[in-house]
Amino acid sequence: MLLLHRVARVKSKTKNGIFVSSFKDIFNDALVSASLCPNLHSVSSAAGTSGNGNRDIPRFFPWKIASTLSAGADGMITKEVASSFKEWFKSGSNPLYGKIFQILRGARDDQEIPYRPSAADLALSRLGLRLNESFVLDVLRFGSKDVLSCLKFFDWAGRQERFFHTRATFNAILKILSKAKLVSLMFDFLENCVQHKLYHMPCFYNILVMGYAAAGKPIFALHLFGKMRFQGLDLDPFSYHVLLNSLVEENCFDAVNVIIKQITLRGFVNEITHYLMLKSFCKQNQLDEAETFLHDLVDSGKKLNGRMLDLLVGAFCQSGNFERAWKLVEWFRDLQIVSMEHVYGVWITELIRAGKLESALQFLNSSKLDGRYIPDVFRYNMLIHRLLRENRLQEVFDLLTEMMDQHISPDKVTMDAAMCFLCKAGMVEVALELYNSNFEFGISPNTMAYNYLINALCRDGSTDEAYRILKCSIYEGYFPGKKTFSILASALCREGKLDKMKELVIFALERNCMPNDSTYDKFIYALCRARRVEDGYLIHCELNRINVVATRSTYFVLIEGFIKSGRGDIAARLLIEMLEKGHNPPRGLFRSVILCLIEMENMEKQFFNLLELQLSCQEPNSEVYNNFIYAAGRAKKPELANEVYHMMLRNGIQPNLSSDILLLRGYLYSERISDALIFLSNLSQTRTIGRKISNVVVVGLCKANKTNLAFDFWKHLRDKGTVPSIECYEELAKHFCQNERYDAVVNLLNDLDKVGRPLTSFLGNVLLYSSLKTQKLYKAWVNSRVGQVETSQSSMLGLLIKAFSGHIRVSQSIKNLEEAIAKCFPLDIYTYNLLLRTLITSDMERAFELFDRLCEKGYVPNKWTYDILVHGLFKQGRTVEAKRLLEIMHKKGFSLTECTQALILSNSVHMRS
């Protein structure tokens, strides 16, 4: 209640000072409340550590703040907090400057026709601007990040009556171009000035020299300077110093000394000259000489520029010598000959850059206490951003409220930092409100603010808002980080908003913005899963267009998607492309593509085209041919398999054992028994028919329902002393049981026991299922035991057959029966389904106990598990329980068997009658 009372105070107090006090109360209460909620620890830990020292509580409070703010009815608290932030932001922005750049951007972006100067000219003229050097410099400084708009304003201002650009305004626009690294544009600008003499000024050459110097081309500037001297012209003091600064920046120290001499000869030496000389020492890492030079200036009584001390202190700090830098600061502070405000700013800046945040905060607090120094907005911004990076949100909040208390006007960087803080603190509604109102302040968020806002909205479940803001960020010229893009992409894919995701990805690709590979993988996977594989292929083609190599997993997803949709031609095209890109597809993927291709129309031509393409992509070998033989056999096209087999021979590649087995299986799978036997006969003339081929024949004949022939072949193997594979025993036993030839089944089991082979789960389940159906197997088993010596396996197996045949009451000893089965063969879910079938007719409670037990043991119930239980419940008239279980079954995607559906139908007919 106390917390809600304090929150409510915000609603009635919106002025800056009162707002800060109330807002701080909210946060402090949230901190205390969070510290009393240990269950939030796991949530805060997931957000990462917050740094060193006693900062555990600040990690908790963002989530507490979010819940606190949500307590206000209809979002009133959120609106009041956002309103207070807006008032502060407005204090640091000039709406007139924002209006100027809005006009310039609108004339450039909103028109479908090329930009017309008259469109912006008219709108700017209506503002009634009073142009002077100071105003133009302020406008250029405000919009320095929007280079094109700055150039258009500079051009417009130069064409206005009663205003002429000065050296300072030229220097400002050149600096903007230089910082944007638009050197070529700067050269075009200067050449345009030279060719057209747009600005007829006595100091025209001075401006050109400054321009080339600002462009980082001091050699060009020196040549132009030489041309001036040849014509009897000279630079003014300002241009000399711009040229000298450029030479220092580009490390042209020989030329630096020459220009200094020229400045000295002309009597232009001033504080700026001394500053640039000191800067030259620092650039050459001659810090001892720089310090001596500075002390000599002090001793000579010359007037010092405070920036000189700033420069040397910064140089000492950047070299890691903070102690020496601080001694210099203290010495000049005691002399009281220069203003220390900027020096303190440099000191705290270097502490922040070096990661010495504790020292920076300590210095800041001590300076405020004795009134020595109040940081400017730039230093506050630096410290806030560094603290944000380390999740030290309490200190960030303290600094923001401190800026409000000190009436420090925020700039664009402050506003971005505040938005980031609000997002991290769980106050995404406030951050969103500020973002939606950003045009009021004439600003647009930077990349970091966009990233934080989008991430926070995704975390908050507001994916549509995050999507809208991401599109806006791209239109503004920003593109979010790969991690942010991936987070939003994952959210859109997870929520099934694939059209938005598709639009966003294409939008990014058209601008050559490159999210990471995993983002495309997720999106293409989501499209294929939603059966929109064509859209996934479209994205893949866009990636190819910009020479981005798709990952191996992307090819997998696309190929499998086209296989499922029956488009083997595109799947084959992707398969070849995958090979060309250096990815090695597995055998299974090859075979699936070929199999899909065979099932299409005009498949034969495409089948052999794919074979030729693959042979051209890699060294021909038997593995390539084997994949095509396998696929043709699986598609019941043994004539194609045979043609590939002979093509291999014609190309000089000897078929290996796998080739023979695959072709033989193709004949058997297609039930072309005579062809299979002819091939086998021909094969016996070139190679020995060993155990592997014999096993293939037995299993293939069984699956072709030629059990007698298979059994004859099996006996032939046994007569030779060869032990067939366990699969031969399984297939023969299954078909003998289906044909009720239980004596033959028992003989197989005896032989299996004789050769020492263990009973497999498949064989055991076949025997138990047959025992449930009929007692004939049990009788055949009993008859076969006469005169036989019992082994532990045969004894246990006989007990199981007896139990499942109904000669032992299963429900009373189900656990013992489980243990007996485990001793005989490994249980699987099919075995448990059989056990459930034995229980549902007599004891449903024990059936459910068995169901719980199999789940506890890690077995996953399948369709038949649920069907057996539903069948049993309906059989006993427990309709309500059966319908409840039926709902669970449907949620898992399972359907009932025809037998159970018939039982439910008969029950409903009986109830109606």
From TrEMBL:
Keywords: Repeat. The keyword Repeat applies. One of its GO terms (molecular function) is mRNA binding. PPR repeats lie at residues 270-304, 376-410, 411-445, 446-480, 481-515, 551-585, 621-655, 828-861, 862-896. The keyword Acetylation does not apply. Pfam families: PPR, PPR_2. It comes from the Eukaryota. InterPro entries: Mito_RNA-Proc/Resp, PPR_rpt, TPR-like_helical_dom_sf. Belongs to the PPR family. P subfamily. This is Pentacotripeptide-repeat region of PRORP domain-containing protein. It comes from Cucumis sativus (Cucumber). The lineage of its organism: Eukaryota, Viridiplantae, Streptophyta, Embryophyta, Tracheophyta.
